[in-house]
Design brief:
Distance between the termini: 33 Å
Radius of gyration: 18 Å
Structural class: alpha/beta
Shape: globular
Order of helices and strands: EEEHEHHEEE
Number of helices: 3
Strand content: 15-25%
């Protein structure tokens, strides 16, 4: 939703016979990466990077076999590496193994919102929680919380390892998994 807001025209890729396997060209390099989890292959990339703080974080797309072959051809045309991790649902553990193998990514920050946070929590892949509590109340019932596990009960414990008072009256808390 940040860098891939459009809707790609995949018709020009009709008839593609691309195999469902990871596509990681060795010539595509970056000092920093942003990973997009897009099981159906719907992100409408207009550029192959996320602009952030004056730099360009190259995009990596994690998909399932629900993404069309046309979409795979589209990603290749945009020079966006992709990892196939699952038939219908994303295998998050597999994606982390592949991200380390192909891109040497050892630490990842989840910054997509409650659904992706909840998906990683359900998969028991969250090692640390960084939470900022701000002195602001919205009251907007459409806003999600920090984790949305879509009704699945999760029983994981974390403990506070750092606290820092912020200038606006908020608090930054770091929790590590027990």
């Amino acid at each position: 939703m940040y860098a891939a807001k459009g809707k790609p025209d995949l018709s020009k890729y009709d008839g593609q016979r691309i195999e469902y396997r990871d596509w990681v060209p060795s010539e595509i390099k970056s000092a920093t990466w942003d990973v997009s989890y897009d099981r159906r292959g719907r992100a409408g990339w207009e550029k192959n990077y996320f602009p952030y703080a004056g730099r360009k974080n190259r995009a990596i797309e994690v998909i399932t076999k629900q993404a069309s072959r046309n979409y795979l051809a589209f990603l290749q045309s945009m020079e966006i590496p992709y990892l196939v991790c699952g038939e219908r649902e994303i295998n998050f553990a597999e994606s982390l193994v592949k991200l380390e193998k192909y891109f040497d990514i050892k630490t990842m920050v989840l910054g997509g919102g409650a659904l992706i946070n909840g998906a990683f929590l359900k998969a028991e892949l969250v090692d640390q929680i960084s939470l900022v509590i701000a002195p602001y109340i919205s009251g907007d019932s459409k806003k999600k919380g920090t984790f949305d596990t879509l009704g699945k009960f999760v029983n994981q414990r974390f403990h506070v390892t750092q606290t820092k008072k912020l200038g606006d009256g908020g608090v930054h808390l770091i929790y590590d998994r027990d």
